Amino acid sequence: MSGLIAVMLGSVLGGAARYFVSGMVARQVGETFPWGTLLINVSGALVIGVCGGLAKDSASILAQPDIWLFAVTGVLGCYTTVSSFSLQTLSLAKDNQMPRALGYVVLSVALSLAAAAAGFALVDVMK
């Protein structure tokens, strides 16, 4: 599979997953705070941590370039969203909700980094 096709196919799946997850969260808890984007970015960080941990082993399927391009660049690259995070943060700030904007930034970065680290650790524990 060529790299471009791998990324394109993965992007379709990642974009669809993001659409469904963010819609589900919005229906459950509303949209006064960007919980959907937070969940998407943190869960994506967890999965990319697992993928990164698995790819360290050259025998892993994720160590193959086309599989990495499909799963990480395509699926997770389209599933997670820095652009929505940025827009939502700016929208909160423009609406004079600076504590919420700052809280969103801190939660997003801290939880995403922790989730990625947990993904790597999970792989190490399972070996």
The major pleated sheet works out as: none
Q: Based on CA inertia axes, which overall geometry fits?
A: globular
Order of helices and strands: HHHHH
Uncertain runs are none
- Straight-line distance between termini: 29 Å
SS class: mainly alpha
- What proportion of the residues form beta strands (DSSP E)? under 5%
By DSSP (H or I, 4+ residues per run), the number of helices equals 5
Rg over CA atoms, rounded to whole Å, is 16 Å
Count of extended strands: 0
What number is the mean pLDDT?
96
In which range does the helix fraction lie? over 70%
Would you write up a description of this structure?
By secondary structure, the protein is mainly α. Helices cover 83% and strands 0% of the residues. The chain has 5 helices and no strands.
In summary, what is this structure?
With 127 residues, this protein is mainly alpha-helical. It is built from 5 helices and no strands.
Search tags:
mainly alpha; 127 residues; 5 helices; single chain
How does the SSE layout of this entry go?
Layout: H1 3-29, H2 35-55, H3 65-79, H4 82-94, H5 98-126
Helix pairs in contact: 1-2, 1-3, 2-3, 2-5, 4-5
